[in-house]
Amino acid sequence: CDKCQQSKPPAPTPAPLQPFPIGRPWERVSIDILEIPMSRHGNKYLLVLQDSFTKWLEALPMKDQTATTVARKLTAVFFRFGIPETLHSDQGATFESETLRLLLNNLGIKKTRTTPYHPQSDGLVERANRTLLQLFRTYMVKDADWEDHLPLMLYVYRTA
Questions:
Q1: Where do the domains of the chain lie, and which CATH numbers do they carry?
Q2: What is the CA radius of gyration of the chain?
Q3: Could you give the CA distance from residue 43 to residue 32 in angstroms, rounded to a whole number?
Q4: Is pLDDT above 60 for 113?
Q5: Nearest C-alpha neighbor of 81 from the set 109, 52, 51
């Protein structure tokens, strides 16, 4: 009724989106772990990294998602492309581990994180994950072959 509508408190206004000004490649890199069916090579996770400036995507197969494995993979990427200023992730246990904290401190990388249970605040890499999964569904014959097709999937993503 009209009376009820008028007496209800106003709905809270959502906070405005906060821009993240990025001025150069590899200034801010977002990361996530994507779980997929086990490959013939025994890998069942992808460490997905995306540069916020260029949108360049890297995806690295992993057998497990331990902090040590992730730190090793990140080190390989950083030594290949350069050390980012900021690394952004969700609040998964792997990304909040002491091992990763020490690595990032030693390399001088600032760590930022998403709001808990709100993956939209890391939309760039979350969208990349969805696109990668769609590419796998489109181009693969068998689930176990995904690792063999990963270079093609990354090429398609990067050139589309």
A1: 22-159 (3.30.420.10)
A2: 19
A3: 16
A4: yes
A5: 51
Residue with tokens 């390989």: 76
pLDDT tens-place string over residues 68-81? 999 999 999 999 99
E strands in the chain = 28-35, 45-51, 57-62, 86-89, 110-113
Token pair 């007496």 in the structure block, residue: 7
Tell me the three state secondary structure of residue 33. strand
Distances (CA, A) of 145 to 94, 105, 157: 26, 37, 18
Map residue 139 onto helix, strand or coil. Answer: helix
The residue type at 45: Y
Cβ pair 51, 83 in contact under 8 A? no
Report the pLDDT value the prediction gives residue 33, as an integer from 0 to 100: 95
Nearest C-alpha neighbor of 128 from the set 39, 29, 43: 29
Cβ atoms 51, 77 nearer than 8 A: no
